[in-house]
Amino acid sequence: MTGEPPLIPLRLPERLRPTQDAHGLVGRVVRVDRGRALAMDDSGRAVEIPGSASAGAELCTGDWVTWTSGEVTRLERSSVIARASRARGEGQTVAVNVDVLFLVVRAEEATRERLLQRLAAIGWDSGARPVLVISAADRATDARRREIERVVIRSAPGVEWVMTSALSGEGIEELASMLGPTTTAALLGHSGAGKSTLINSIAGANVQQTGEVRARDVKGRHTTTSRELIDLGERGYVIDTPGVRELGVLDGHSVERTFTDVAALAQSCRFSDCRHESEPGCAVLAATESGELEPGRLDDYQRLRREADHAERKAGPARRDKGREYNRLSRQYRRARGH
C-alpha cells in the first residue's frame, strides 16, 4: 500500500461503546488497496492488515475491527453498500457501516428513469438512509427542474432528494444537516456525477481531487481510484467511491420497495407468487390493461426483478439465505432509526 497513511481521529458511535469497553482496542478500516487494509485505532495509530485477515471474511472500507496479538476480528456491519457487476461475476461490496448513502446523479441525467430506479433499489438494499442528490442543478432551467421533480417522484418513491449546486451552494447545507460527528456518509454514482465536488463543498475545503465532464456525452473521468474514509470533523466521515459504469441490483426486496405501486397492486393478485406475466387473476396486469398502471412501470419492474432473481440464483443457497437474513436485519435497523 503506497502513500502516507492519513491520520483519522476515530469517534465511535454509541453502539460500539460496549465493544470498546470489552476489548479495549477498536479500529476502523480507512482504506483497502490490492487486498490489504489500512486500519486506524482510536489513538491515531495506523495498522496495515491483510484484507482477508478477519476470520476468513474480507475487509472493506468502513469496517470496524478489534485486534489482539495480531488477530483481527471484524465487527458486525450495520449496513452494506453493494452492487452487481457482470465484470466480477458476482456482487461487489463498495462500502460498509454507512449511515447516509448519497446517490449522486447530474441534473443532465436526472430524468433517466431506469438510472433512478437502479439507484433507489441499491439505496433501499443497503440498510443506510438513501438520499438522491441531483448535482449541477445551477445548469437546470425552471422547466427542467419541474421535469426532474416529476421523474424523481415517479421513479424513486419514498427516497429523499435534494437539488444541489457546488457553484451556488444550493442544497449543500441541507446535505450537511444530515451528518454529525459520528455519522458516516458514502457517495455512489457514475463517473463525472460530481461526487468529489460535493465532498469538497460539504467539507468547505479541497479534500478530494475533481475532474472535468465531457459536454458532448456528460461522461467524466475517474478522479477517485480507491475507496477511502475521509474525516470531515464535526460533519463526520465520508467514503468517496470510484465512479461506476454498472449499477446492478442484487436483491428482490429492494425492487419491491422501489416499485411500491406495483407491490401494492400485487397484494390483490390471486396467487401469492404471481410473476405478473400471464397468470389468471393478476391484479397488476389488470391495472396495466385498464390504464391504472402505466405499461412502462410493469416492464421496468419485471426487468429489475429478473436481474435481482438472477443475482440471487448465482449467489447460491448459503449466500442467498445469508442475504435474506441481512435484509431482514437491515429493515429492522432502518425502522428503528425511523426510515
TrEMBL record:
One cellular component (GO) term of this entry: cytoplasm
Gene from which this protein is expressed: rsgA
Cofactor info, note text: Binds 1 zinc ion per subunit.
BP terms from Gene Ontology: ribosomal small subunit biogenesis
The protein's name: Small ribosomal subunit biogenesis GTPase RsgA
SUPFAM superfamilies reported in the protein's UniProt record: P-loop containing nucleoside triphosphate hydrolases
Domain CP-type G: 88-247
Enzyme Commission number, as recorded: 3.6.1.-
Keywords recorded for this protein, A-Z: Cytoplasm, GTP-binding, Hydrolase, Metal-binding, Nucleotide-binding, Ribosome biogenesis, RNA-binding, rRNA-binding, Zinc
CDD domains for this protein: YjeQ_EngC (cd01854)
HAMAP family: GTPase_RsgA
Major site of localization recorded for this protein: cytoplasm
Assembly behavior: Monomer. Associates with 30S ribosomal subunit, binds 16S rRNA.
Pfam families in UniProt: RsgA_GTPase
The organism's place on the tree of life at top rank: Bacteria
Domain (EngC GTPase): residue spans on this chain: 96-245
Residue ranges, compositional bias (Basic and acidic residues): 305-328
PROSITE patterns: ENGC_GTPASE (PS50936), G_CP (PS51721)
